[in-house]
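User: Quick one: structure for sequence A, then sequence B.

Assistant: Sequence A:
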Amino acid sequence: MEPFGARLASAMANRGPLCVGIDPHPALLASWGLPDSPVGLQQFVDITVAALGEQVAIFKPQSAFFERFGSAGIAVLERLLVQVRETGALVLMDAKRGDIGSTMGAYAQAYLSDGSPLASDAVTISPYLGFGSLQPALDMAAQTGRGVFVLALTSNPEGPQLQHAVQADGRMVAQAIADAAGAANAGASPMGSVGLVIGATVGVTGVDVSGVNGPLLAPGLGAQGATAEDLRTVFGSALANVVPTTSREVLSAGPSAAGLQDAAARMLEQIRQVLG
């Protein structure tokens, strides 16, 4: 399979860079008039994918909202992967997995290996057991043409305590993660398959991501307070690789298909005015 970085670049060029999160939390299900159950979950997925599947480049289902229903919820998540694949959009599984050794290898097999029912185009992973602990996922992604998005600068208020900490070599932890991602992506064209997650609300951080040469997922647009213009502040010269993501700003317009499509189109237009 063509490397994820190349496939994502093509999808962004053809459909625009917007990523829509699929976050069926109880309040959102209720606002759509759906039950907080696996049945409601499936209806939510059906409506969202049918409305937006041919419009957006990539979806980001939040695994936790499916896991909370146990095997029935995971079954909906597995069907979601099939449904999205049929539309030509990509799927980034937001699972934020991170561990060491054989356990990290098992996570890699679950989300990145051929034939797994949860295999996605990419998965979010956490480097805070050390970037080297991610190697099983990096290896599996490279082998199967999939990608990973590594948490670097998150928008939660607790994040800076760890992410802004300074290492013995004088670099912030987040900078070291960005540098490691850049090393993994060296020589890739049009961009590598090791991305970073950097919140659109983090402002000026002093972390240089110009050398990452991979996709930069930017959650936080809309309901979380960030605007498309904030992307300039956070990403600077790396704007071309930014993948802005939103969920509530688009999903709150459902369950009307037209409402979802209009909301996604408006958000995409705002993003294009900034990213070009």
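Sequence B:
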Amino acid sequence: MSSGFVKTKDGTEIFYKDWGPKDAQPIVFHHGWPLSSDDWDAQMLFFLANGYRVVAHDRRGHGRSAQVDFGHDMDHYAADASAVAEHLDLKNAVHIGHSTGGGEVARYVAKFGQPQGRVAKAVLVSAVPPIMVKTERYPGGLPISVFDGLRAGLAANRAQFFHDVAAGPFYGFNRAGATVMAPVIDNWWRQGMMGSALAHYQGIKAFSETDQTDDLKAITVPTLVAQGDDDQIVPYKNAAELQAQLLPHATLKVYKGFPHGMLTTHADVLNADLLAFIRS
């Protein structure tokens, strides 16, 4: 099957895509909040054309996966990713996560992928670990009021809120001189509105308040850390730079001027660098 559903241990149906030769090395993509596996279109087509097996799933409550009213936390996200990997029996896989998906990758690799011997490498793109919210351990984080504001905006008018995020900070379209791509905004909005308001609301706590220091320290496979220095969603000094310090085998790449959504706006650059890392 090139797409389908896997039922997790708690009964949640998770949608996945599985394209390409089943004997090729798998590359598994983990999407950001509040999107779906469709956010990886440019990467999946690129790596498929380069001979890889490409797999991506919709997080619970997102995209085409079941809109359950429970389990919207990093532990369930990682377990769901593992359910897909086990169902498809993926081995020697490269797991690539963007934003919240980067947190999912970190927990999946540490808790499931490495212990099961399924992972060759990992990539964190504009990823949320070690933690986004300001804490005593990480004073460079964002104040909780930022995330309370996200929750308030989502609850008041999700459709308008999602449009404003995509049209503004996510892709850097609010920067002077930016080339605003209306269809990209529309596609972000489409992906977001496919999902569950409850999953998105509860997911804000998951991506902002989960301390993943131990996950990062536990990852022994080679890991590429990539982020733009104009990321207005996840500040890179509290994300990529700390990830590179905590990961035992990290390669850090900071892109000048790239936004949070660089896998769409700068797909050509990112794809080439991902391919070089996977082949290295």
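The first strand starts at residue 3 and ends at 7. The longest helix spans residues 74-87.

User: Thanks, that's what I needed.
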